[in-house]
């Protein structure tokens, strides 16, 4: 269905299926898809975006739920943050549920969607570090009923971009059946944008630890060496607990990897120190990573 607002040049299309939405975007290359609109309307209100048309995704029921598939959860891109925060979803993917609950006030969680969080790719997007740590895969719907899959990290890093007419339809997440944690720091008390966030998941089947740090860079950062080190000292067949010194060392390892010291000058002079704001951010990341690992192992 296409409606034209009186005395306006904007076209609003309300497709009933994912393929109809793709067809609408293919027919109107200048149109913008919209689900919850939390990021889109902020850009419009700030004068940063003037879409020639909108393709509303709110009527597409196939992307508003989830299903199980070969040891994975196939999450619809239209899942709201509020829905992901509920207990049944938290039992499935606890880290993603925790991020959804921390995403902001109720009005934001009720409208904002998983797909919107991904496509907007804001550095402070709360679900993004969890998806990076889970090594989630995006199912992209394209013209002619086409489907392709890309790692979420490729889209966030700009290595693979959405082509004209394409939409994120689903997110494939492995079900690890193991503890997960998400923590974030904000500049004020209560819901707010993250100044730093940490997602941590355990993968007992592979005897691995996966960690991603959000909000400190343009995309979530994976401290791979820190992951490998801490995984090597965990007793996977026993209690899995670590002494406080090991938790602290892990936090420092993660923070130093994500907020490194300045490179030494080429002229051999004394290296410059991190500015106070960066040092404070590094301490924040270290504390979040230490606590997240402690919670996952407890």
From TrEMBL:
Domain FAD-binding PCMH-type: 4-178
Pfam families with a match to the protein in the record: FAD_binding_5
SUPFAM superfamilies the record matches: CO dehydrogenase flavoprotein C-terminal domain-like, FAD-binding/transporter-associated domain-like
InterPro entries noted in UniProt: CO_DH_flav_C_dom_sf, Diverse_Substr_Oxidored, FAD-bd_PCMH, FAD-bd_PCMH-like_sf, FAD-bd_PCMH_sub1, FAD-bd_PCMH_sub2, Mopterin_DH_FAD-bd
Key word Oxidoreductase present: yes
Keywords: FAD, Flavoprotein, Oxidoreductase
Protein name from the UniProt record: FAD binding domain-containing protein
């Amino acid at each position: 269905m296409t409606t034209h607002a009186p005395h306006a040049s904007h076209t609003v299309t309300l497709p009933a299926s994912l393929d109809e939405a793709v067809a609408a975007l293919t027919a109107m290359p200048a149109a913008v898809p919209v689900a919850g609109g939390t990021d889109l309307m902020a850009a419009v209100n700030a004068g940063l975006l003037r879409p020639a048309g909108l393709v509303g995704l709110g009527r597409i029921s196939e992307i508003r739920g989830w299903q199980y598939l070969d040891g994975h959860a196939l999450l619809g891109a239209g899942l709201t943050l509020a829905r992901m925060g509920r207990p049944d979803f938290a039992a499935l993917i606890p880290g993603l549920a925790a991020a959804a609950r921390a995403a902001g006030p109720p009005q934001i969680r009720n409208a904002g969607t998983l797909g919107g969080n991904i496509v907007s790719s804001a550095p402070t997007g709360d679900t993004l570090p969890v998806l990076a740590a889970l090594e989630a895969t995006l199912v992209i719907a394209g013209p002619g009923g086409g489907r392709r899959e890309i790692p979420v990290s490729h889209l966030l890093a700009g290595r693979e971009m959405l082509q004209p007419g394409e939409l994120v339809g689903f997110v494939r997440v492995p079900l690890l059946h193991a503890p997960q944690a998400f923590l974030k720091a904000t500049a004020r008390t209560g819901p707010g944008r993250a100044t730093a966030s940490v997602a941590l998941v355990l993968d007992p089947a592979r005897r691995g630890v996966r960690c991603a740090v959000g909000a400190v860079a343009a995309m979530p950062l994976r401290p791979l060496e820190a992951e490998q080190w801490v995984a090597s000292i965990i007793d996977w067949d026993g209690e899995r607990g670590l002494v406080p010194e090991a938790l602290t060392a892990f936090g420092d390892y993660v923070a130093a990897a994500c907020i490194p010291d300045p490179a030494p000058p080429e002229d051999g002079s004394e290296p410059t120190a991190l500015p106070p704001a960066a040092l404070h951010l590094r301490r924040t990341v270290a504390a979040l990573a230490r606590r997240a690992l402690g919670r996952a192992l407890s």
